[in-house]
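ARCHIVE CARD
Drawer: 12
Card no.: 0347
Subject: one protein chain, sequence and derived structure
Cross-reference: see card 0346
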Amino acid sequence: MSGLIYLIGLICAIWVIYDVWVVNKRLDETSKLLWTILAVFANILAAIIYYFIHKRRAY
């Protein structure tokens, strides 16, 4: 079970880092760095927060 949670956390971190650096052109370098650090240390929580702050606003 812990392996599944680790895998989900890894996928969430990779998604946030990819979206911040490649897709989201509106963010400045400092914000990108802060999101990357947050994604590394709090991956699932960072993905949820990032989704509600940046992705839902686009729709």
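Annotation on reverse: The first helix runs from residue 2 to 23. DSSP finds three helices and no strands in the chain.
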